[in-house]
Amino acid sequence: MLVRDNAGMATSAALTEVAAGVFELRLPIPFEDGLVNVFLFVDGTEADLLDCGMNSEESVAEIKQAMAQLGAKRLRRLVVTHIHPDHYGAAGSLAGEGMADLYIHRLEVPLVHPRYVELEHLVSEVRTYLLVNGVPATLAEELSNSQRALSQVVKTAEPSVQLDGAESLQMGRRHLRVEWTPGHSPGHICLFDRQDRLLFAGDTLLPELSPNIGLHPQSTPDPLHDYLGGLRRLAAYDPEVILPSHGRPFTDAPARVKVLEAHHRRRLDQVVDIVGRGKETGWEVALELWGPRNQFYEKRLALQEALAHLQALAVDDRVSKSVTPESVRWTPA
Ligand SMILES: [Zn+2]
Predict the structure, then answer these.
(1) 229 CA to middle of ligand 1, Å?
(2) How far is residue 286's CA from residue 302's CA, in Å, rounded to a whole number?
(3) Alpha carbons 250 and 272: distance in angstroms, whole number
(4) pLDDT digits (tens, 9 = 90+) for 279-316
(5) Is 252 helix (H, G, I), strand (E, B) or coil?
(6) How many CB atoms lie within 10 A of CB 252?
(7) Residues whose CB is under 5 A from ligand 1 (ion)?
(8) Angle formed at CA 227 by CA 226 and CA 231, multiple of 5 degrees
(9) How much is the pTM?
């Protein structure tokens, strides 16, 4: 699909010119809707890339083939919206010594090593987190180990630049502003092209999905408030086109933000209700919200999402939170 009539031609099934000199490439992933969108910005015989898909041979080959098709001989910089495997996985195949420079928000940097390289400490931290939040012991053991598979589709790279947010980055021939939007991940960034009002929204603003906002050992302490604050800032930009990481380009960010805010408001009210009925642990609240889930991945996401809502409610003084080394409990305020 072309975003604007004058934006150019679709050059192949997977590669589309979404704005002058900006090409969307859709790469295969085994989750979400099965595709992640990455963006190549061309500048003569060089190119810059926003996000890079997972580290599989076919996915990396697709990026290289797209570059060749566009006449780009060298990848200059790789900017990553956040370090989840579908956005960051191939970083080590494209960036580092003798390859592209990697740009990433500095709050993402410390997440990489424990998550993808040296997992033992994080696995034990996650096990404790699951236990104190009411997950039964045998399930906690299984869930804490479910992260290991993901590290196999990620090849890490050292960042050349650690971003704070609010920088201006040259991507292709465009200059984009870095917008730090924590919530889905602590150092998630979006890129905004002020001149053409294009918003590269990563996973923060998606046309169909509500991104997972979870409280867990690697999250910010109040990710839901962080996320909602970021959405409001993006809506205020009133971009002409939003280019998301999953799904198709869309318009009317303020309307989409209203839908997402309403979704979370409803869920917050539901959680207040559930706590009012005497459910005290994050796990009990998650089970009330979604019922038992089949996959490990979904179970963990459900718990994380329930906890993000509970934490936001505690911050707003709508539920009370008490902690001991053994448990985290939520009760009516
Ligand atoms: Zn994603």
Answers:
(1) 20
(2) 6
(3) 33
(4) 999 999 999 998 877 777 788 999 999 999 999 999 99
(5) coil
(6) 13
(7) 86, 203
(8) 120
(9) 0.93
